[in-house]
Design a protein that fits this description.
CATH architecture: Alpha-Beta Complex
Largest sheet: 6 strands, mixed
Distance between the termini: 16 Å
CATH class: Alpha Beta
Helix content: 10-25%
Number of domains: 1
Oligomer: single chain
Bound molecules: zinc ion
Strand content: 25-35%
Radius of gyration: 16 Å
Order of helices and strands: EHEEEEHEEHHEEEEHEEEE
Number of strands: 15
CATH superfamily: Fumarylacetoacetase-like, C-terminal domain
Amino acid sequence: MAYQHLFADGTPCDLPAGKVVCVGRNYAEHAKELNNPIPSEPILFIKPSTSLLDMAQPFSLPEGQGCIHFETELALLIGKTLTKADEQTAADAIVGVGLALDMTLRDLQSKLKEKGQPWEKAKAFDGSCPVSAFIQTEKVGELTDIPLRLSVNGEVRQDGSSAQMLNPIVQLISYISQWFTLQPGDIVLTGTPAGVGEAKSGDELLVELPGQLSVNTQIL
Ligand code: ZN
């Protein structure tokens, strides 16, 4: 079934499924765990709309590509066109807050990085971006302190908050729009807290905005 954005309260969302703009190393502890330096400016990359999946449905992973990591991230649904937007305009364009898994072919990414080649194949493959339904932004509270958590087979593996981001949400969206126009239906992924690890067939995942949203899913 084709992916379509959903609101968590069942309100229909007629925004089209657009591109996903992602930021690398937006949490210092995660940069450290992969032995990466902390960047002085946001590292951006894009997943196409064909990367999107409904996280609530069990999903499968590419086979024969080595180690695949989960990265749990806050996802922002964009509702207005943003080109070189200031922070207030960027803030006003966020229509929903949800969760995403930035699935990453980590072995392949390491090889591509070694050769100085783009990451695309490791990050932007079909189904590389399972996303949850979105909570309308006005119901979420302060964007500067949203907790997020991932449990795998009952064990908490990632537990962070947007308060730990090197580039906070609104500044990040404004920055992205200096480079890439964001369109209604695009999603922004905001980086992953520490605790990334290997995703395996049969894993049961619980992805949460504690107190607001929780998604149980399974890797086939
Ligand atoms: Zn990521």
